[in-house]
Design goal:
Radius of gyration: 17 Å
Strand order of the largest sheet: 2-1-3-4
Number of domains: 1
Number of helices: 5
Shape: globular
CATH class: Alpha Beta
CATH architecture: 3-Layer(aba) Sandwich
Strand content: 5-15%
Number of strands: 4
Helix content: 25-40%
Distance between the termini: 47 Å
Amino acid sequence: MRSFQFHPNELLLIYYDYSSNTSKQTRAYARSVSNNINELNLSTVKLTTTLWKEIVNMLDLRPKDLLDKSNANYQAKVRGNTFTMTGWLEVLCNNPYLLKAPIAVYHDRAILCRKPTDILRLDVNSRGSFKVPPHLKPRVVN
């Protein structure tokens, strides 16, 4: 059972800093992937460790891979520590400003948008995975 659910055609966009260029550009590209965008600004919304675990699994990354290691707070609070999976998820929950890039979730797939155009890979790959219903297929006339 999934820990969170949303409409299949909804794109979930997770970011911390709306004013960053990457976030703004990623939001703009998101509109070309889906008309239904649900934005989660981590500066105002806190995700649970369960949601973070789901997202990390969808990304097929470690929680540590989502963090900006050049951030001074990462250097002061996180660097050099060894955490369990739960510990890393707690770091994400309690320090969302360390997120290195926006995350997009669409059709049960997720991508870390290091570049704003990374979000477009969700659209290209998702369209090929759906079958066209018979009544929408083009008719072949002999």
